[in-house]
Amino acid sequence: MVGPAIVTEKRVAATSPSKDELIAFIQSVILNEQQEEMGPFYVLDLGVVRSLLDTWTFNLPMVQPFYAVKCNPDPAFLKEMAALGTGFDCASRAEIQTILSLGVSPDRIVFANTCKPESHVKYAAKVGVNLTTFDSVCELEKIKKWHPKCALLMRIKVPETSGAAFLFGSKFGALPEEIVPLLQAAQAAELKVVGVSFHIGSRAINYHAFEEAILAAKTTFETAAQLGLPKMHILNIGGGFTSGPKFTEAASAVKVALKKYFPTGPTTGLKLMAEPGRFFANEPFTLATSILGKRIRNEIKEYWINDGMSGSMNYLKYDHDDVICTPLANFGNNDVITCKGLETSDSTVFGPTCDPADTVLEVYPLPDLQVNDWLVFHNMGAYTSSRGNDFNGFKTSAIPTYLANSDKIS
Ligand SMILES: *Cc1c(COP(=O)(O)O)cnc(C)c1O
């Protein structure tokens, strides 16, 4: 069973900081550090985290969010989410350990990896993480052996109509024709299949995909009932949400589909959960990078910055197509200023490594900048630092995070 996870208390929505406030905060960090050559750093605004949870609860009060840890496991961010009472989607022993170490009870964790190492299954049993996903007979055998009391969600592959940047169907989810044999295998092994999970794809754009997915889940609930399995009672609608104006659209698609296919909803004991990653992690993080080098070639200005594709920006090209980058001119001596109103020209921005693919921006309008000026990238929390590595000795793991509270930024 999934335990109670979500906040009941209604807080006043925190106001998101304006970009100007954040920039002012970043200026103060740069000035306070007074380092000759300062590396890249993140700012995490905890006020934004709180307001995102308010937005979620306002739009989808019936759906408990289990934050997908892989999206950004920054310790301060996870701590804030834990304090706010969300659940967590963990995919490995280490992720479970991290969440438990924050004092989160194991019933606020879903072990949402359909193919787990045996030792991780054993660990889940030991620490009392009692909800996981599966989509193969092999996984059922593993669970039967090491964690037979675990409640199971059958991950189903859903029609890939979300237009998402990243689809999961080639790797995850039972095909329609596999559903009956899998349910029968679980039944024969006396394992508890308590519900269904799916993922419409990360950074989805067409939310009618939720309707098709929720219909597929309803069909699976019915199939289980026909096979004589105990009534399913958990529906996990996965991730795929983005923050911003698209969220209300996604939430209403979910609500319409739930009304249509699960009309009795929670009144008959149905529990609704989701595994949003990007929705919570993207907006609260801002990345500040500084300029290491410059070249002018064919009248195009080319800049090198101190983070790039092997670090926080591995997905920037295709995952962050609305890159928002604020340049800051650094005159030293307490003088870091915005470049508002300056003339811009199409520029190229390279990352610091010797990989030619380490190109961050092309044909991007920037003013004339110099070494030690700054480029600040907004909405940089989702699948950024968590995917970075230490290639060429530029250490993503060493990028510090400064905390802001937008309630308190002034
Ligand atoms: C990655 C992942 C998520 C989070 O997806 P977002 O698109 O970031 O919301 C949720 N559930 C599972 C099983 C995942 O693998």
TrEMBL record:
EC number(s) given by UniProt: 4.1.1.17
InterPro entries referenced in this protein's UniProt entry, alphabetically? Ala_racemase/Decarboxylase_C (IPR009006), De-COase2_C (IPR022643), De-COase2_CS (IPR022657), De-COase2_N (IPR022644), De-COase2_pyr-phos_BS (IPR022653), Orn/DAP/Arg_de-COase (IPR000183), Orn_de-COase (IPR002433), PLP-binding_barrel (IPR029066)
**Where is the Orn/DAP/Arg decarboxylase 2 N-terminal domain positioned along the sequence?**
49-281
Pathway info: Amine and polyamine biosynthesis; putrescine biosynthesis via L-ornithine pathway; putrescine from L-ornithine: step 1/1
* Requisite cofactors: pyridoxal 5'-phosphate
UniProt keywords (A-Z) are:
Lyase, Pyridoxal phosphate
Instruction: Give me the reactions it catalyses.
Output: L-ornithine + H(+) = putrescine + CO2
Q: Which Pfam families match?
A: Orn_Arg_deC_N (PF02784), Orn_DAP_Arg_deC (PF00278)
Query: Mind telling me which GO cellular component terms the entry cites?
Result: cytoplasm
* N6-(pyridoxal phosphate)lysine found at: K70
Output the superkingdom of the source species.
Answer: Eukaryota
Q: Where is the Orn/DAP/Arg decarboxylase 2 C-terminal domain?
A: 42-381
- Could you say which enzyme class this protein belongs to? lyase
GO-annotated molecular function: ornithine decarboxylase activity
- Has the keyword Lyase been applied to this entry? yes
| Assembly with partners or alone | Homodimer. Only the dimer is catalytically active, as the active sites are constructed of residues from both monomers.
Q: Which family does it belong to?
A: Belongs to the Orn/Lys/Arg decarboxylase class-II family.
For this entry, the protein name equals: ornithine decarboxylase
Q: Which organism is it from?
A: Herrania umbratica
